Amino acid sequence: MSSCFTDLAMQYIDGEWRPGTGSWDIIDFNPYDGEKLASITIATIDEVDQAYRAAAGAQRAWADTNPYARRDIFDRALRLVEEREQEITEAITAELGGTRLKAGFELHLAKEFLREAAQLTLRSEGRLLPSPVEGKENRLYRVPVGVVGVISPFNFPFLLSIKPVAAALALGNAVVLKPHQDTPVVGGTLIAKIFEDAGLPAGLLNVVLTDIAEIGDAFIEHPVPKVISFTGSDKVGRHIATVCAAQLKRTVLELGGNSALVVLDDADVDYAVDAAVFSRYVDQGQVCMAANRVLVDRSVAEEFTEKFVAKVRTLKTGDPSDPQTVIGPVINSLQAHAISAAVDQAVAEGATVLVRGGTTDNLVEPSVLTDVPADSSLLHKEIFGPVALLVPFDGEDEAIRIVNDTPYGLSGAVHTADVERGVTFAKRVDTGMFHVNDGTIHDEPLVPFGGEKHSGIGRLNGETTLDAFTTLKWISVQHGRSTFPF
Q1: By the 8 A CB rule, do 46 and 222 touch?
Q2: Half-sphere exposure of 46 toward its Cβ, with a 13 Å CA cutoff?
């Protein structure tokens, strides 16, 4: 496995694997045991420019390629992912501390999105529109935007790089990918290698491994990309939106969340407990859709809390390569410290501790808190770790008020015996996605994915992907003769 990281610890620009020319290195560590996986000399502003120029140079011929020929690339990429599934699983475990369960979940979705990308190659359909002008024909063409810049996160790097990269390429664009510096291989060069081996022509996918300390805003300010797709924090997302808006550049931003899972008075409590524990603790809680807050009607709060706490106590924390492990390490020591500090803050503010997990290096055991003061900042922000906040409420109106009392609006769920009651509840929540009698964490290739408020701008998946990575061109044809006033 170490050789995998060493072999892929390179920049991938215009079909060539080469070292960066920056003055310092990114050190790729295993967050569980601290093993050094690779040392990567970072890319400079000049190399970012080379990557974008290579993408621009290759894109037009790719857009003109028969879409059925383009589809073959994605079919081959999917087969390669299937053939290399064990290797990719080991890389996810090593580089980001993902458990076996988490790696399987991520790989399953990545394969689904590769299947969808193969279909996207055939979906840039045009239209003929009527004209009030005699003899005129209006043709509406859907064409690629050109070059897309993709910035992916550390939590689901393989999936959240594959999804925009494959979709943009399928629709005739070229891509420059900048993965998170903590997951440069799984989120970047591993994907480049798959597409290279699948036969993607040189220059269409470029991967730059770098850091904003070296390149500043060069990746998003560069004049070549017409769309920047970013998944990450709302703080960084707002900055990207500001910079791109000044250049009239389109953005697709999938940002943070503070989702709530709501348990109404008629819910199946045992089922709701299972959904809530998964929604909060999968991938150590490092999921934008995670149920930061678990709201429970006071009439069932005692039963729910007892069963929730009991289930959380069974979650094994430890080595992510152990199939029995549910809670692996968080990505780095900064995240571990931030999570511990959030729990300390809650305790200082008067919260009741039902489970207090310890922290050893990057291993953060699960915690469960209740009675968090209503004015605590913790109820309004994203906690990117294994900490659940249980919040009792009296009736649906109060639940809606609490759910919406956050600057975020990404996902959520409600549990009830009455499906239509759940749908009515969901309609009152200010969010991009909401689920009835399920968990908060879902992503499907055909369903628009994205958030409201500080949780992002734009959508991906299905028809919305066409809107994200293509543009419409109107070409009119006058078959007769127009008349002009002079």
Answers
A1: no
A2: 4
d(CA 463, CA 227): 17
Closest residue by Cα to residue 205 from 341, 465, 424, 15: 15
Degrees, nearest 5: CA angle 457-461-464: 60
The tokens of 394 are what?
């009296």
pLDDT in tens, 251-302: 999 999 999 999 999 999 999 999 999 999 999 999 999 999 999 999 999 9
Asked whether 395 and 374 are in contact (CB, 8 A), the reply is no
CA angle, 308 as apex, 411 and 428 as ends, to 5°?
Answer: 30
Residues 82/55, Cβ–Cβ less than 8 Å: no
If we measure between CA atoms, which residue out of 345, 328, 433 comes closest to residue 386? 328
Q: Percent of the chain having pLDDT more than 70?
A: 99
- Is residue 367 within 8 A of residue 284, CB to CB? The reply is no
Assess contact for 42 and 25: CB atoms under 8 A: yes
CA distances from 318 to 99, 353, 386, 388 (A): 9, 22, 13, 19
DSSP codes, 138-162: EEEEEEE-SEEEEE--SSSHHHHHH
Question: Which pLDDT belongs to residue 4?
Answer: 81
**With bands split at pLDDT 50, 70 and 90, how would you rate the model's confidence at 123?**
very high
Residues designated as active site: 254, 288
56-95 per-position pLDDT tens digit: 999 999 999 999 999 999 999 999 999 999 999 999 999 9
- 338, with CB counted inside 10 A (0-12, 13-18, 19+), is middle
In 311-399, at which residue ranges do the beta strands (DSSP E only) sit? 352-355, 359-360, 363-364, 367-370, 387-393
Cβ-count burial of 72 within 10 angstroms (0-12 exposed, 13-18 middle, 19+ buried)? middle
